[in-house]
Protein 1
Amino acid sequence: MALRSIYRGLKKNNLLSPLCNSCSHLHSHSTSFGYKEVREEEKSQMVGNVFTSVASSYDLMNDLMSGGLHRLWKERLVSKLNPFPGMKHLDVAGGTGFGDDKSLVWVEGDAEALKFEDGSMDGYTIAFGIRNVTHIEKALAEAHRVLKRGGRFLCLELSHVELPIFKDLYDYYSFSVIPALGELVAGDRESYQYLVESVRRFPSQEKFAKMIAEAGFDKVEYENLVGGVVAIILG
């Protein structure tokens, strides 16, 4: 698992400008929902409908689709966060997260407009969630805003496979097996079709790292897991 350091001097060397072209669609009046183009105001409701539909079988499907590896990926994410006593941490897109720890506070909100003060958090994590937001750059800006100086940003996300032969196998599995498995287990083929399409529409690891740097983060790097099926991106 190679750890790649990305663009520590991007701003200084003015290497971020190509990002503007690749992300210009984010500022239009339409956005992607998988391979479909939908109006911006419709996407959040459509994503909400997806997760409402699959909620009861969400954890089971994650186990089946990843062979249980998603649990190890999340453990890897937490190990990189290196939590400490008294840490004030924000986990966004918690989904079906659960727990009765009294130190946990559950809040329903919008990743693009967080209800927390500037510089109030020591850490920010988001796992398998940021590709579902309407404006990725707004969610990143909000993450930067709420973090204290020196705070950590960590994102775990389904990403892009780089090895050609493995990519062909992964594409077959994604488009032929996952939607069929969703129909069989969750009774919902379309939501899992959206899942695999949304992964293909999400920026590559390097492009997403550039977006994080553009949001104001320093020392941005990423680590591919399982050949790029998922990646951990840090800032």
Note: The CA atoms of residues 9 and 15 lie 8 Å apart.
Protein 2
Amino acid sequence: MWSYLSLVTFENIHEVRRLCHWGPVIALTVIAVCSSMAILDSIIWYWPLDTTGGSFNFIMLINWSVLILYNYFNAMFVGPGYIPLGWKPEEDTKYLQFCRMCQGYKAPRSHHCRKCNRCVMKMDHHCPWINNCCGHQNHAYFTSFLLLAPLGCSHAAFIFIMTMYTQLYERISFGWSTVKIDMSAVRRFQPIMPFSVPAFAATLFALGLALGTTIAVGMLFFIQMKVILRNKTSVEAWIEEKAKDRIQYYQTGEEFIFPYDLGRRWENFKQVFTWSGSPEGDGIQWPIHAKCHQHTLTIEQLKQKADKRVRSIQYRVVEDYNGACCPLSKGFNTFFRTPCTEEPRIGLHKGETILATRGTKWWMYGDKVLDDEQTKAGARLRGWFPRRCVEKCHYDTAVTSAMTSETSSEEKKVK
């Protein structure tokens, strides 16, 4: 424990800036409100020094708070693990994607995070609540936090309900003649704090936070466990789904086997959760299925990337857009149906060309076609933009040449 604290203090002190974000501020506020109110209400409802049950209840509250904060800060400050800048394997580079931002190759299972601006080992997703990525090194801490938070909030919610019930039992007639709760133990001690109207309002507010956190975070826990038991990440589950769509679309007759599913759930579970607290593997080499090899997934990603270029649709910008998240000037539906994602928006100017890859009824996502100088410099602009700002264009040689130059430049860097 002390070695961990020294690691955070002396080596990762710059990581403290991650706390200056709306995600950790909200998350820590919810934890502080629920924990403090649960401790205060337990003193009112079940004085910890009066009975054994009260003492056990109080100790469990402290225990939940410590475990939740321990796993939360580990998930935030330990981080997911990053591929070294400029990393290049000794061989098999033709099977790997080249990251122009990190000027290195992406190791199997790694992906570039636009928020962290690094290639992340075994990236699952970027979580705004910890203001960091969930990946190879902190996946276990993050999942443990998702389990402990609903358990602690459920305990707190029970305390809030019992506190309100016991304090209002003799003041308000509920008409529950058949509901009888033995409150002889809690009546032996007169609380040192009165249960006033502000205390009732605060308890009711904390109850809402605790129930909401239990439901929302509990659902995230089950989603994480679903992919962990298959030794996948959320990104890899999406890649696997697209692989099946690609095979079905082109009728290639291929059989895609996810390479990292070891067959047994317990074996998959042990890849993330270990007694030592450190995950299995170095973040670059992975145990794989018998019918696969280390680059099975990366080869599929290259196929999907090539297919994405072929199936992208060219659009020409007909209306300027400043890149605002919710543009008021682009219509009522565009304003209220903006994509609920942290993916960026890109500004548009008339005459520019966009290669769109996906979209909704009111918004589209794509890459802006850049000139040769920007392409050689490794620049890339992609993001969301209003659908009304573009129109589908016919075959254009200028666009085709831009696409060709971008593709050839990327291939040269990979080689």
Note: Confidence is low (pLDDT under 50) at residues 1-11, 173-183, 396-415.
